[in-house]
Structures are given as C-alpha cells and as structure tokens.
Task: inverse folding
C-alpha cells in the first residue's frame, strides 16, 4: 500500500500564526507537519528574507510607530535589511480581507520579517527534520530584480552553508529559476509550480507564457516535459489536477504536491485522490484528516509513513 500524502505548512500555519514567521514555522513543526513551504525575496543589499509579497502589505504591516501602513508599502527590493527591520509583521489589520480569511490568527508582538539564515538556524535547532519547499519569488518580466542565476546562487550557497541541501527543494513559478538551478546546482532538487490560465486569470500555464522558460506544452504533455527536464516535483494548483493527470505524472516519476488546500472537505478529497503532498495553511487540520482517511482506508503504515 502506498504512503499517505505528506502535509506541508504553507508559509508556516497562517490559520494560527502570522505567515512566514519563525513562530509560525515552529508551530507547524510542532503539530507534526512533514514539511514547510516558505517564500524568498531579496532586500536591496542582497539578503534573502522570508516573505511573500514584493511590497509590504498594508493589511499585515505596521511602521516603527505601531501604525498600520495606509496603503501598499515599499518594495522589499528597495529596502536594506536594516530598513526592513523597522516594520512589524506580527498581526493583521482588523476588518481587512486577511482578517476575514484568518479570524483566529494570533498576534505576535514586535515581529520582524526573518532572514533565510534565521530560518535555517531554526531548522537546525529542531530535532525533527522536515522537508523544505523553498520558493524563490521572481518574475520573468520584472526589470527591478537580480537575474535568475544570481538569485539561485545566493539561495543555494546559503542552503549549502547550513547543510540544508538534502532536505530542500527549490520551488518556483518562474521556471527560469529552476533551469538556472539545474545548470549550476544539479544536486538541488527542483519543484515546478504551475497555475493554469483556464482556471485563474493570473495563471502561468498558457501558450507563449514567459513563466515556462521556453516550454510551451499542452497541459496533458506537461508531466513528460517536466520529467525529461529532471524535475522532482510538479506542484499544480489543486483545482487544476484530476486523477488522470495525477496518475500520468506519477507514472513519469514525478511527485505531485498540490496547493493551497484549506477547506475540510477539499482536504479530505485531496487526501483520497492520492497526491504525494498537500500544501496547506492549516497543517493541524490536514494531519487530523489524514489520520481519519488512513483509518477509513485500513491503511497499514509503511516505512515511509513511520519516517514522516
């Protein structure tokens, strides 16, 4: 019998604690998550920091006086690390869309955006080793950013310096990043994110897409192309995946990890579908449901399960 899907905390565990914070990542580990997904951007002085949006969000950021930003804040790439440290990201503005989506998220006082180094030190301090989906936020069309090769070099050198290469995957929507990694750091496993334009206006999968680094596949042919490129993981939006596509990808030797699944019924359906991993804002719920599904299926734990 195959192993049950692994559960990855998406930016930690945003249902409980602010996203992409050290406290949120630790919470996800403590709940039993098999892995973590984190986002990286570079500051003006070239420091990789763990944050998702290219600009500071008014919904989740307060200035040094404790006041919520009135609108979208400065770009991460326009701030030095010292300047970025002036902002507090340990809460959500009351009444905002973010607050409505995560009404039970706790507040973390005096919380700063962590560096990749701080995150990796936290991982080294944990007795439990988890897998890492390290997402490099990089656009194929933006001009105000370093090259894909430079970004990969900075991150890969940091992972190597902390001995985290073996438990990490480079994870990206911009497949130029992953091609750069394949050229310069072939020992780093690669995870290809995708979002079909037919299901989302911001999708990356469409004819002539700049996100695919020259690949122009029909959706059905995507698993073969990724397998041939040496990809380890295909990470599609969960609504883009059906059982046929899943089985086809797994037959090509790919692990399939879907994102971002939070609803109880959708999580249960995804667990029953047979994906290799699920990326979720609520790892505690996903793990409880995995236990339920496993018991209902009469699942006998495999060695892989026991090592998770």
Result:
């Amino acid at each position: 019998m195959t192993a049950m899907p692994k559960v990855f905390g998406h930016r930690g565990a945003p249902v409980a604690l602010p996203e992409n914070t050290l406290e949120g990542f630790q919470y996800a580990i403590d709940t039993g998550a098999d892995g973590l997904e984190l986002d990286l951007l570079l500051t003006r002085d070239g420091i990789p920091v763990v944050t998702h949006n290219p600009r500071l969000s008014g919904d989740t950021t307060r200035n040094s006086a404790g006041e919520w930003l009135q609108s979208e804040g400065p770009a991460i790439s326009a701030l030095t690390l010292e300047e970025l440290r002036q902002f507090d990201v340990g809460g959500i503005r009351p009444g905002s869309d973010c607050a409505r989506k995560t009404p039970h998220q706790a507040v973390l006082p005096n919380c700063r955006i962590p560096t990749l180094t701080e995150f990796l030190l936290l991982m080294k301090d944990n007795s439990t080793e988890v897998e890492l989906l390290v997402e490099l936020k990089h656009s194929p069309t933006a001009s105000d950013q370093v090259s894909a090769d430079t970004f990969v070099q900075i991150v890969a050198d940091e992972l190597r310096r902390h001995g985290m290469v073996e438990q990490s995957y480079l994870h990206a929507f911009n497949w130029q990043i992953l091609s750069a990694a394949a050229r310069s750091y072939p020992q780093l496993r690669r995870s290809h994110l995708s979002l079909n334009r037919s299901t989302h206006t911001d999708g990356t999968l469409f004819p002539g897409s700049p996100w695919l680094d020259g690949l122009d596949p029909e959706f059905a042919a995507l698993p073969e192309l990724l397998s041939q490129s040496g990809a380890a993981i295909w990470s599609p939006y969960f609504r883009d995946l059906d059982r046929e596509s899943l089985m086809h990808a797994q037959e090509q030797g790919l692990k399939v990890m879907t994102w971002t699944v939070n609803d109880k019924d959708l999580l249960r359906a995804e667990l029953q579908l047979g994906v290799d991993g699920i990326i979720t804002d609520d790892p505690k719920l996903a793990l409880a449901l995995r236990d339920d599904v496993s018991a209902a299926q009469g699942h006998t734990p495999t060695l892989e399960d026991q090592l998770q």
Summary: DSSP finds eleven helices and nine strands in the chain. The chain has one domain: 6-307. The chain has a mean pLDDT of 95.
